[in-house]
């Protein structure tokens, strides 16, 4: 994976976790990966496999492609998702 895309992925996962009030424990559990592994991925100490990236995107209910987008584009899209979720409830 290209360095910039991987940086975007990490930042966007952290942003989603914050917006959704998810801890690393909860996200790791939902993604069916270990919390230490997730921690290393988010800290930039380990490059995740495509399979792990896909598991994380599924756990966050966003597309893998969206997690690779620029952080600005991701925040705009996440804001729309959150607004739609509030409008539905």
Sum up the structure in keywords:
6 helices, globular, 434 Repressor (Amino-terminal Domain), mainly alpha, 89 residues
Would you mind describing this structure in some detail?
With 89 residues, this protein is mostly helical. The chain has a single domain (3-88), classed as 434 Repressor (Amino-terminal Domain) (Orthogonal Bundle), CATH 1.10.260.40. It contains 6 helices and no strands. It has helices at 3-19, 24-31, 35-42, 50-60, 64-68, 71-88. Helix 1 runs parallel beside helix 6. The longest helix has 18 residues, at 71-88. It is globular. The mean pLDDT is 92.
Alpha-carbon Rg, integer: 13 Å
Note the main sheet: none
What is the CATH superfamily label?
lambda repressor-like DNA-binding domains
- Architecture (CATH level 2) name: Orthogonal Bundle
Low-confidence stretches: none
Shape: globular
Q: What is the N-to-C order of secondary-structure elements (H for helix, E for strand)?
A: HHHHHH
Q: Helix count? A: 6
Helix content: over 70%
- For this structure, the CATH topology is 434 Repressor (Amino-terminal Domain)
């Amino acid at each position: 994976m290209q360095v910039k895309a991987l940086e975007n992925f990490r930042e966007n996962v952290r942003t989603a976790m914050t917006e959704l009030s998810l801890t690393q424990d909860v996200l790791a559990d939902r993604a069916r990966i270990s919390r230490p592994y997730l921690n290393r991925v988010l800290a930039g100490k380990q490059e995740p496999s495509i399979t792990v990236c896909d598991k994380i995107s599924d756990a966050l209910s966003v597309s893998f492609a969206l997690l690779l987008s620029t952080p600005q584009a991701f925040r705009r899209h996440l804001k729309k998702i959150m607004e739609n979720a509030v409008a539905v409830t």
